[in-house]
Amino acid sequence: MADRPKLGVFKFASCDGCQLSLLDAEDELLAVTEVVQVANFLEASREVIAGPYDVSLVEGSITTPHDAARIHEVRAESNFLVTIGACATAGGIQALRNWKDVDEFTRYVYAHPEYIDTLQTSTAISDHVPVDFELRGCPISKAQLIEVVAALLQGRKPNIPTYSVCVECKRAGNPCVMVAHGTPCLGPVTQAGCGAICPAYNRGCYGCFGPMESPNTKSIGAWWKELGVDDQGLVDAFRGFNAWSPAFREASNRHEVFVEIGGTG
Amino acid sequence: MSGTREVAVDYLARVEGEGAMRVKVVDDQIEDVEFSIFEPPRFFEAFMLGRPYTDAPDITARICGICPIAYQVSSVNAMEDALEFDVGEQLTALRRLIYCGEWIESHVLHVYLLHAPDFLGYESAIHMAADHREIVERGLRLKKAGNAIVTLLGGREIHPINLRVGGFHRVPTKKELDSLIPELEWGRDAAKETIRWVSGFSFPKVEEEYEFVAISQDGYPMNTGRIISNRGIDIAPAEFNDYFTEEHVARSNALHSRVRGRGAYLVGPLARYSLAFEKLTPAARDLALEAGLGPICNNPFKSIIVRSVETLYAIEEALRIIDEYEAPKQSSVPHEVKAGEGSGVSEAPRGLLYHRYRLDDEGRITDAQITPPTAQNQLSIESDLRVVLEQNLELPDDDLSWVLEQSIRNYDPCISCATHFLKLTVERVTTGG
């Protein structure tokens, strides 16, 4: 089976959770390895088969000079490059540094900041190299992961919806937590894919799949304020796991202005 | 053998995160041993400053995709300590139940997919499956049984969404929990088979006199408690920094955790097992003895047996909690927000995980400290490497490298966890020097 397509899995700054999704696909894992050659997946195997790779899954964000160079090497040896998860697609929770002084962060966490070689920002893979497909989520959905790999190998477009979590809630028959319980929820501006689990567990969506295709962040901000959330609360909400995605970044900056001038937005 | 040998692995496989190993031997004398971490720093403690206390379980989960429950439970324990309230027995039992799920999925992942291939000479479990498909399938099904607990109680297996300071967003019904029972009952037998399977591997004769550190609670150490050691430590979590410290080691540019005034210590399965053997279930104790373990285990390579024993324990404990479950009247306990400082501990699959936070009077975080297990074990990992190296100097480089890698994997190191805390500069290898 030497002609199986080659799969590579590459890690940058991340928690390992998205690549773990592949190992968490307990029912599919062995079947996948029969149709795909796992050529480079260090979390799972010592064996490294040289590229090029038909499909490369890239987890994590770019936060060091070394990684900023390494992603170009990965791109060069990948036919399809798919980013998996919020870190690779939007910079991840570690992008909260982008609003702060990283030197100060370094002094806070490390006794010897002089040993730390880090960039001022945490950025998405697509800020550095062209990306063929972006898979959302913190973490990704393993069903979506299998779908993307299958679609690329079959030469078709992956079937990954870009509508909001609200659609998933309606389909699941969840009562709307904002309407029924007055619980602030980012579902209306967040892309589907998680299965609307937070509303199903009586909590508001916290946006871990990032902005949906046409997010109306102003409207959701006004709605949250009616529910008693202030501007600082909205800054915190948009500055989550997809803080540096353009739509959420812009929304958080807008509310931050009102925090600073003490007005209302 | 005269001359200089360097064995280096620039990117360790089958561990969580990016780590490297380098050893240098000059004329059969070990000159340098280094287990290093080059995972990029992510600054969790720093960017949590100013965030509301309620964010801690969701944010700190993202330190590790393998053991998010450990982060969530240690953080809520610390916050509830800071706010001076307790969630009561039923909600604590539910936290212990989801923790059982994480132990099962994480331990089985490590035993079957990451560690066993070393003992049987395979590059990976995928390679191993070509010869031992039924065994790998048993492992995957067992892992899934653990993930099913996490998914039911947490909403999803990675970065669950249901834990909160005060309890849960939603508690399960008895009927929902009962749905887990059949697969867990299958899992109880599969876990026994797992213990028998791994106990047949051959183990290097390495015995080390560790200072074992783990938490102590009514049951087997898992979700909350005091911190104890086999050399007399018995402290509340709030005293952690009085007894443990990180010291700078110039040789490796690393911060290493030590017991103050003593030295290296060990957290994780060996420590828990050796400190709390009597608290295992009777079946887990019997199988451990049948597998050739005594009530104390000092051989790090046998951690694979101990993880398998803990997997059986976690399955039986999960079944017990489900059996005794009555849905709590409220899913979370109301509490007053106020300024304070709190510490929390729990036993991540790979060992003690300590969190400490200080809050202002609006409940915003003004100080945060997270000490993960792999950082605490780093000194012991290097000490093991020296012992294993000394015993195996006659091996060719490739085989030597493999046994040293295996020695690191004994710890199931989670480098993603350790990294926000540790940073080593990688010393690139120059061979033949």
Largest interface by Cβ-Cβ < 8 Å: A-B, 64 and 71 residues
The CATH class of the largest domain in chain A: Alpha Beta
Describe the strand arrangement of the main beta sheet of chain B, using strand numbers.
1-2-3
Low-pLDDT segments of chain A? none
- SSE run of chain B: EEEHHHHHHEEHHEEEHEEHHHEEEHHH
Tally of individual helices of chain B: 15
CATH architecture of the largest domain in chain A: 3-Layer(aba) Sandwich
**Low-confidence stretches of chain B at least 5 residues in length (pLDDT < 50)?**
419-433
* Sheet with the most strands: spatial strand order of chain A: 2-1-3-4-5
What does this entry look like structurally?
The complex is a heterodimer of chains A (265) and B (433). Chain A has 265 residues and is an alpha/beta fold. In chain A, helix 3 links the parallel strand 3 (53-59) and strand 4. Chain A has twelve helices and five strands. In chain A, strands 2-1-3-4-5 form a five-stranded parallel β-sheet, sandwiched between helices. With 433 residues, chain B is α+β, with helices and mostly antiparallel strands. Chain B is globular, with a radius of gyration of 21 Å. Chain B has helices at residues 44-47, 56-61, 68-82, 88-120, 125-131, 133-154, 174-178, 181-199, 240-243, 269-276, 282-290, 303-324, 373-391, 397-409, 415-419, and strands at 4-9, 19-26, 29-37, 163-164, 167-168, 213-216, 226-229, 234-235, 244-249, 254-259, 340-348, 351-359, 365-371. Chain B has one domain (44-413): Cytochrome-c3 Hydrogenase, chain B (Orthogonal Bundle), CATH 1.10.645.10. The two termini of chain B are 15 Å apart. The model of chain B is unreliable at 419-433 (pLDDT under 50). Chain B has a three-stranded antiparallel β-sheet. The chains are: A alpha/beta (265), B alpha+beta (433). At the A-B interface, helix 1, helix 2, helix 5 and helix 9 of A face helix 1, helix 4, helix 5 and helix 6 of B.
